[in-house]
Amino acid sequence: MLALCASQLTAILDMNLLAFSSRNYIKHDNAGQFFSSGHTNNWAVLVCTSRFWFNYRHVANTLSVYRSVKRLGIPDSHIVLMLADDMACNHRNPKPATVFSHKNMELNVYGDDVEVDYRGYEVTVENFLRVLTGRLPPSTPRSKRLLSDDRSNILIYLTGHGGNGFLKFQDSEEISNVELADAFEQMWQKRRYNELLFIIDTCQGASMYERFYSPNLMALASSQVGEDSLSHQPDLAIGVHLMDRYTFYLLEFLEDIHPASKTNMNDLFKVCPKSQCVSTPGHRTDLFLRDPGSVLITDFFGSVRKVEITMETINLTDPINSFR
Amino acid sequence: MATTEVERRRGQLAALAIAAVVIIVGVPLWWRTTETYRAWLPVSQINELAKLQLQLSADVEVVFARGTLTPEQQKKVPLTQTQDEEHRVDEDTALRYRYETRYRTATIMEEDALNQPTAAEADLSLHTLSESPCGSLVVYVIPESSSLLRQDVDVYIGQRRTALLRIGSPMRVGRTLEQLLAHMEPRMKQVLQVMSFSNTDITAALSDRVRVSPGNKGSIADSMRAFKSSPGYEITFSLLNPDPKSHRLHWDIEGAVQTYIQPLLTKLAPVANFSIDSQTLYYAVLGVNPRFDSSRSAYTLNADSLAHVINPVEARLGSNAASSNPVLNFLLYVPDAHHSPLYINDRKKQEVPSNAFHSPRWGGIMVYNVNAFYGLDAVFPVDININMAKVMGVFLAQLRLLLGVQSSTPPPGFQVAACGSAGLADWELDRLMWSRSVENVATATTTITSLAQLLDQIGNIVINDNIAQQVSSAVTSLQLAVAELEAGNLGFALQYSKEAILASERAFFDPSLLHLLYFPDDQKFAIYIPLFLPMCVPILLSLLKIVSEARQKRREKQAKKD
């Protein structure tokens, strides 16, 4: 009872008496634990580059990663979702407003609250590079911008049809690995990221990260140069392949992660070995400063906020005469 | 015979004419029409800026009160000294700190002011006598016998730009003025580091240019907590009411903002623009279940679970879609009737007096318990008026932290005054202005130099006139900002540095600078060969034929001569 009264009385620490005493000026509770990764916010740029109904699986890939990232805490305001075609409301979809990841139809990755930022024909190489480098026209709304700073960890996921050194957009244009590497370098020059994780699920995906040269980039691909990434399984009711193998097993892996889990990147590298994927997934960590074993999955896929207790307050009971 | 000769001659002339047209007219025309327009950029000036030599100057006035100087020391005063301190941060960046110190004795009115009973009142009356310009300091040296300061305190830092420094009696300190100054030196250095700029703060502000690995975890936390320099910020106050059936909350947010927050923001006007809005969210819950602590008969939230509170709430907070400025969110959460009262525990399971926490570069959340305002027999919903002074006290402190106003612990023996009605002391504003100017200059130079490098490397980006103009104005503003910093005009330096940043960002992020023109060399050949090869082959062959015929003729002539 007494403790309760005392706590209410001392509810406000007086800024008057900031003499160095046993009371700490700024108390960092275990600052080391909280600030080891060096980032304060998370962003995700998820891109599906293929159109047409038979590329259903690419939209399902992107939406599964979107779903995992949202579930682990990244808000929609920090996700830039680019889908080149609308599968959920496609005329050929026998189950409208749904996009399934598995033929048992247990998981509708479209969900109730999907927010697509770039849709249909807006998904072009130019717009993708503009989002990454920040060179958007002034009239672009906030939701279509990547407003990251030097303390942001960014996850970039690309999927579609690709080849040795390029990725096809909308069946009419390509982005080359050199352009991508240059875009990342421009992001680094302007300090638009702290650390960046690049995941690509296409044929010959490893060729896309060969040319990276900026620091703090980690890359994963679903197949090596010369190999094709294969799709997982067709659904006879919907009539198309539902997902690609790599992203299917990635989704399975991510479903086991929750916001407080301590799984690290080395486990992510083991997702979808050759026996399951038929292609050999690859990864690249030489540009990354930290050891992958110390990088948590939630550093990129989730949004665990750093938190500090507010120890000081200002005494405002007498605003006009608060200086004495 | 003659006709074939004429024909052949005509053919030769035709081939030569075509070759002449192609070479003299065609090649330059093709070159001109396929080159990209690149306006002129001041590259040499940009390269000069890449090597940044910053000099920060501060004016310090040291006033000796009666009883601190012996008569012979007093004869040597007034005196002016200049101190320089050099630091080399890396091979491209060097810093120099210059302190111009003027020593003088106190006037009669100042002596009267120093005779006040407490340090705070002395500070106030000294302020009424004279106002120090931005970026300068005045240190009043008071004798040991003075009762203004407590026993264990040697230095008192006031709300404006004055400090009181107590030294020992002249007998102990030394005979000559030099000995006295040498005795005062360490304390003066500490005062200057607290009140104007310190090397750690300035080096941290240069983080865009220099990736410095900070010494300890505390300074990592400091550098990550405050928002980076931006021309504007948006502040959003949100009231979260998860239980409208029990609590009908009233908060006078407009009045509170006007009374408590606006003075601070007005004082910070040279640093940035602020826009404020507020909202009330109903049925917004924290994403974490609090635990019931029977010893205090209250619900508690651990420090560990606080990190997961923010994300579910953030999804429901709106944002002003019109600007790209960073947003500071301040949330006031009133727990529902079944989970009241709710307290936050720190890592040591101790209760937190402010009942609030903040997240670096995001904002702050405060939990406001209202269960004390009504008894068990209240009729729901209960009308509750929130005590805005208490709430704003917490939010103002968090705002100061997030804007980077707060700094490191003052050294032992220092007493720092409360921050005044605006929530910000003048010297704190000066500190912020120093570090913001340096940060802006560092960011702008990095932007401009990397833009110049980028445009140099990629040959086929079009550089429009407006980009060249922005770059030139950025370079000019940067040069002016560096010059003003050197001269010690803090206000102008900050203004020029802000202009430099705006111009450089506008130039770097101009939408026209996107190049999609990556052509590997084999693709370039693949485009030009089908165009030019069919045209060039006949011309070349006929030229060769002309040359070989001319040679043959010359040989025949030689043979005829012989």
Automatic annotation (TrEMBL), chain A:
GO annotations under biological process?
A: attachment of GPI anchor to protein; GPI anchor biosynthetic process; proteolysis
PANTHER family, from UniProt?
GPI-ANCHOR TRANSAMIDASE
| Residue ranges of the TM segments | none
The answer on whether this UniProt entry bears the keyword Phosphoprotein reads no
Pfam families linked to this entry: Peptidase_C13
**What is annotated as the active site?**
161, 203 (nucleophile)
Its UniProt pathway annotation is: Glycolipid biosynthesis; glycosylphosphatidylinositol-anchor biosynthesis
Which organism does this sequence originate in?
A: Lates calcarifer
State the taxonomy lineage.
Eukaryota, Metazoa, Chordata, Craniata, Vertebrata
Keyword list (alphabetical) reads:
GPI-anchor biosynthesis, Signal
The molecular function GO annotations come to: GPI-anchor transamidase activity
Quaternary structure and partners: Heteropentamer. Part of the GPI-anchor transamidase complex, consisting of PIGK, PIGT, PIGS, PIGU and GAA1. Interacts with GPAA1. Interacts with PIGT; this interaction, via a disulfide link, stabilizes the expression of GAA1 and PIGK and links them to PIGS.
The family annotation for this protein states:
Belongs to the peptidase C13 family.
Q: Does the keyword Coiled coil apply?
A: no
Spell out the GO cellular component terms annotated for this protein, sorted alphabetically and separated by semicolons.
GPI-anchor transamidase complex
Protein name according to UniProt: GPI-anchor transamidase
Automatic annotation (TrEMBL), chain B:
Q: Where in the cell is it found?
A: Endoplasmic reticulum membrane
Question: What pathway annotation does it carry?
Answer: Glycolipid biosynthesis; glycosylphosphatidylinositol-anchor biosynthesis
Q: Which Pfam families does the record cross-reference, listed alphabetically? A: PIG-S (PF10510)
UniProt KW Endoplasmic reticulum keyword: yes
Q: Where are the transmembrane segments?
A: 12-31, 525-547
Q: Which UniProt keywords apply?
A: Endoplasmic reticulum, Glycoprotein, GPI-anchor biosynthesis, Membrane, Transmembrane, Transmembrane helix
Keyword Membrane recorded: yes
A single GO CC term for this protein reads: GPI-anchor transamidase complex
Bilayer topology reads: Multi-pass membrane protein
Q: Which InterPro entries match?
A: PtdIno-glycan_biosynth_class_S
User: Where does the signal sequence lie?
Assistant: none
| Top-level taxon in the UniProt lineage | Eukaryota
Gene Ontology biological process terms in this record: attachment of GPI anchor to protein; GPI anchor biosynthetic process
**Family statement drawn from the similarity comment of this UniProt entry:** Belongs to the PIGS family.
Protein name, UniProt field: GPI transamidase component PIG-S
Q: From which source organism is this entry?
A: Lates calcarifer
Q: What is the lineage of its organism?
A: Eukaryota, Metazoa, Chordata, Craniata, Vertebrata
